[in-house]
Write a structure and sequence with these properties.
By secondary structure, the chain is of the alpha+beta class. It folds into four domains: 142 residues; 110 residues, no CATH class; 268 residues, no CATH class; 148 residues, Tumour Suppressor Smad4 (Sandwich). It contains 23 helices and 16 strands. A six-stranded antiparallel β-barrel has the order 8-11-12-13-15-14. A hairpin with a 2-residue loop joins β6 and β7. The N terminus is likely disordered.
C-alpha cells in the first residue's frame, strides 16, 4: 500500500524546486555578483541529497523550455534567449547527476523540444545541439553519461573507453599570497587524497544498474551486495558495465533492449556472487546517491611561462624525462587512432608527474621532418574548436584552469602563442592532447567586477572577467561570483574539517569543467615596439589580450595632479595643457566593413588601448576592434577612436613607457614607435621552408580566419 505522506510530500518538493528554479533564472539578469551562483549550487546539493527529485526537476526544466520556445516564436528580440542557456545546462547536469531512472516519455519530450531550439541563432543552437546529443545518448543507453564521465575523470583503466582527463589549476603568484595558496591548494586537492578506485567502481556499477533497471533494481540490496564483494570482483563487473555501455552506444537504438537485458543479468549475477538476499525491508522506490566525485586537480603556482609547455609536453610524451621532444615524438607520436578503431595511448599515473625536469627541445630539422598531413592538423583543430563542434574522442582532454586577473590571461596568451608556434614546426601536443582553457577570476585588489551590461573602465584588473560576463550571463552568474568566495578561504584553511560551505568553490569548478564547453575567443594583438637607448635602436615584439597603456613619463605628475583636482576647478582653468604631439595612422572600422586608412596628429600625454569583442557588442561592424583613447592632461579633452590596427609615433624626441595587460613585469621604457595589429596564428601558416602548399591546404586557408584568439571556455560561447 502506498504511503499517503509521500503523495502529500511530492507537490511540496516540486513547489520548492519550482521556486528555486525561478529564482535561479531571475538572478541571471541581476546586477550584483556577491550571491550569484549560490542558488545553482543549492539546487545541485538538493539533487545529491535526494536523487528521487530529479524527475520532478527535469519536468520543470522542460516546462521552462516550452515557455522559452513560445517567447521566441512571438518576438525577434534576443532577450528571451538568455534563459535558454541556464535551463539547458541545468537539464544536462540533472541528467548526469541523477541516480533515478528518468522515464522514456520524459526523454522523448526533452528530445522534441531540443530539436525545436536548433532554429535559434548561434551560440544558443550550439548549446542546444550539445545537450541534444547527450540526451539522445542517455535515452538509448541509460547511465552512459555518468559512466563515461567517471571513467575519464578518475582515470579508471579499461579496454573499451580509454579517453582520460587531467585537470591543472595554475595560479598567479602575484595574486595568491602564501596563505591564500595554502587554502586553495588544500581545498582543491583534498578530493585526490581520499580517492579510492574500488569505491568509485562500486558507485559506477550501482549507478548504471539502478538508472537502467529503475524499479526492477533494489538499490539498497545492490549496494550491500557490492560492498560484500572483493575489490577484484568489483573491478570485473565494472569492466562488464563499461563494455555494455560502449557496445550499446555503438549499436545505436537497436542495442537498447539488449543493453537492458545485459544489465538485468549482471544485477542477478552480483546478488548471487555476494549471496545477498533481497528482503521485504528493501524499498524498490529508493535511490542511492551516487553523485559524481570530483576529478583529481593538480594545483600549481605558475611562475614561468615555460611551465605550461613543460607540463603539457611531459604529459603528451608519456613521462619522458631526458629525451628530446623531437626524438620522442618520432618514435611514439603517431599511435593515436579513432575511438571506434584500434587503441589509444594509455596515460599512466607516472605520466601526470608535473615535477619532471624541463624538457630539452631539439629544433634541428624541425621543418624537414614535418609531414604533409601534419600541416593541416592545426588548421583543422581551429575549425573543430568552434562552438557546437563535437569533442575529439581520439585525444586525452587536458583542462587548464588559470586563476588570477588580467595579468594571468596576458601570460596565458603568450604561452598559448608559443605553443601554437612550436606545434607549427613539429607536432608534439596536438595529436595526443585536447587542450581546453578555463578562467576563474581572482584579484588581490578590492575593485569589484563591472556590471554585465556596462563596459569596464578605469584601472580594474578584472576587465576580461567582466567581458566574459557580458557575453555570457551564465558565466557572470556562476563564475564571476567566485572571487569573493576564494578570498574568504584564506581565513578558513586552518580548520580541521572543511565545512559544507567551503565545498562551493570545488563544486562550482567541477560544474564549470563539465558544462563549460563553448569557447569565447578573446582576440590577441601583436605589438611591435621600436626603442631607443644609448644611440642604438632596437625592436621588441610582444602581444597583449586585455590592455595596453603607454604614457609620456614627463607628463605623469601633471596628469596625477589634474586627477586630484575637483572637476569644477578644472573647468575654470583658462590654460589647457594637452600633452605632446603624436603622429597616428590607423585603419578605421566602418559599418560597411571597408577598411579606411586615416592619418592624424594628437596632442596627448598617454594612450590606453583595449580590445573589444565585436560579437559581444551591439552595433559593431562584425570585426574585433581596438578602443583607443588618447589621454590629455586635461581629461575633458581626451580623444577616442576605434581601429583595426594602429601605428603611433612620438615626436620631439620624446619616448613612451608601455605596460601590457596591466602587468608591471611587462613594462618597456624608451619606446618611440608602437605598431599594433591582430596577431596571426602560427598554426595557420600553410607554407613551409621545404615544400609547396597543396591544393587542399590552399582551399582550407582561403576560408579560415588566420587571426589568433585565446579560446576561454564558457557556458554560452561566442561565434566570431
Amino acid at each position: 500500500m502506498a504511503d499517503p505522506a509521500a503523495d502529500v510530500g511530492l507537490p511540496t518538493v516540486e513547489s520548492s524546486l519550482r521556486n528555486n528554479l525561478q529564482a535561479l533564472l531571475k538572478e541571471v539578469n541581476g546586477q550584483s555578483t556577491s550571491q550569484k551562483g549560490m542558488l545553482r549550487w543549492r539546487v545541485e546539493k538538493k539533487l545529491e541529497s535526494d536523487p528521487s527529485c530529479s524527475v520532478s526537476l527535469v519536468r520543470l526544466l522542460l516546462q521552462e523550455l516550452e515557455k522559452k520556445l513560445e517567447a521566441v516564436s512571438t518576438t525577434h528580440e534576443t532577450r528571451p534567449y538568455e534563459h535558454v542557456i541556464p535551463v539547458l545546462h541545468t537539464l544536462y547536469y540533472v541528467v548526469i547527476q541523477s541516480g533515478a531512472m528518468i522515464p522514456s516519455s520524459l526523454y522523448q519530450t526533452a528530445y522534441e523540444r531540443l530539436i525545436k531550439l536548433l532554429i535559434l541563432p548561434k551560440p544558443y543552437s550550439a548549446v542546444a545541439l550539445s545537450t541534444l546529443r547527450s540526451i539522445r545518448m542517455e535515452m538509448i543507453t541509460p547511465g552512459s553519461l555518468y559512466q563515461r564521465r567517471v571513467t575519464a575523470e578518475q582515470h579508471l583503466k579499461n579496454e573499451h573507453y580509454t579517453l582520460q582527463e587531467k585537470v591543472f589549476a595554475l595560479a598567479d603568484p602575484a595574486v595568491f599570497s602564501p596563505r591564500l595558496e595554502a587554502a586553495v591548494r588544500g581545498h582543491l586537492e583534498a578530493s585526490g587524497f581520499l580517492r579510492n578506485t574500488a569505491a568509485v567502481q562500486r558507485a559506477a556499477v550501482l549507478r548504471v544498474l539502478q538508472t537502467g533497471l529503475g524499479t526492477s533494481c533494489q538499490s539498497s540490496g545492490l549496494a550491500r551486495a557490492l560492498e560484500a564483494l572483493e575489490d577484484h570482483v568489483v573491478e570485473k563487473y565494472f569492466q562488464e558495465v563499461v563494455a555494455a555501455v560502449e557496445q550499446s552506444i555503438q549499436g545505436a537504438a537497436g542495442g537498447r533492449a539488449k543493453y537492458l537485458n545485459r544489465l538485468h543479468d549482471m544485477y542477478g549475477d552480483i546478488l548471487t556472487a555476494s549471496k545477498e538476499e533481497i528482503t521485504t525491508a528493501d524499498d524498490c522506490t529508493s535511490v542511492r546517491c551516487t553523485a559524481l566525485p570530483a576529478p583529481e586537480i593538480t594545483f600549481l603556482l605558475w611562475r614561468q611561462e615555460e611551465d605550461l609547455w613543460n607540463l603539457l609536453a611531459n604529459l603528451a610524451l608519456c613521462g619522458s624525462r631526458n629525451s628530446s621532444v623531437d626524438e620522442e615524438t618520432k618514435d611514439r607520436g603517431h599511435s593515436v587512432r579513432s575511438e571506434d578503431g584500434g587503441t589509444q595511448p594509455d596515460l599512466r599515473e607516472r605520466d601526470f608527474d608535473y615535477r619532471a625536469q624541463p624538457l630539452v627541445r631539439n629544433r634541428m630539422c624541425a621543418f624537414k621532418n614535418m609531414k604533409p598531413a601534419d600541416k593541416l592538423t592545426l588548421m583543422s583543430e581551429k575549425i573543430e574548436a568552434s562552438p557546437g563542434s563535437s569533442p575529439d574522442r581520439r585525444r586525452h582532454a587536458t583542462r587548464v584552469v588559470v586563476m588570477g586577473d588580467d595579468r594571468v590571461l596576458g601570460r596565458l596568451a603568450r604561452a598559448y602563442h608559443s605553443i601554437r608556434e612550436r606545434e607549427s614546426k613539429r607536432l608534439v601536443l596536438t595529436k595526443k592532447l585536447n587542450l581546453q582553457l578555463y578562467y576563474i577570476p581572482v584579484t588581490d585588489m578590492e575593485a569589484p567586477l563591472c556590471p554585465p551590461d556596462i563596459p569596464c573602465q578605469g584601472e580594474g584588473r578584472l576587465s576580461l572577467a567582466s567581458l566574459l560576463g557580458r557575453v555570457d550571463p551564465w558565466y557572470n552568474s556562476s563564475i564571476n561570483s567566485l572571487p569573493a568566495a576564494i578570498s574568504k578561504l584564506a581565513g578558513k584553511h586552518n580548520q580541521s574539517e572543511p565545512s559544507p560551505q567551503n565545498l562551493y568553490l570545488l563544486d562550482t569548478l567541477c560544474y564549470y569543467l563539465r558544462c563549460g564547453t563553448q569557447p569565447v575567443n578573446l582576440p590577441l594583438y601583436s605589438v611591435k615596439m621600436t626603442r631607443s637607448g644609448c644611440n642604438v635602436s632596437s625592436v621588441v615584439e610582444e602581444m597583449f589580450v586585455s590592455h595596453l597603456e603607454a604614457e609620456l613619463p614627463e607628463f605623469r605628475h601633471l596628469k596625477e595632479k589634474s586627477a586630484k583636482e575637483p572637476s569644477a576647478r578644472r573647468k575654470k582653468s583658462t590654460v589647457d595643457v594637452f600633452g605632446a604631439v603624436m603622429s597616428v595612422s590607423y585603419t578605421k572600422i566602418s559599418v560597411s566593413k571597408r577598411d579606411v586608412v586615416k592619418g592624424e596628429a594628437f596632442m596627448a600625454c598617454g594612450v590606453v588601448i583595449t580590445p573589444e569583442l565585436a560579437a559581444g557588442t551591439s552595433g559593431s561592424s562584425g570585426k574585433d576592434y581596438l578602443n583607443v583613447r588618447f589621454d590629455s592632461v586635461n581629461p575633458g579633452h581626451n580623444k577616442q577612436i576605434q581601429a583595426q590596427n594602429i601605428s603611433i609615433k612620438t615626436l620631439e624626441e620624446r619616448t613612451l613607457s608601455v605596460c601590457l595587460d596591466r602587468d608591471s613585469r611587462r613594462t618597456y621604457a624608451d619606446v618611440q614607435r608602437l605598431e599594433i595589429y591582430p596577431c596571426l596564428d602560427p598554426g595557420c601558416s600553410i607554407r613551409s621552408r621545404f615544400s609547396v602548399s597543396s591544393e587542399r591546404e590552399l582551399l582550407l586557408s582561403k576560408y579560415l580566419d588566420k587571426v589568433l584568439s585565446l579560446p576561454i571556455n564558457t557556458f554560452t560561447g561566442v561565434t566570431i
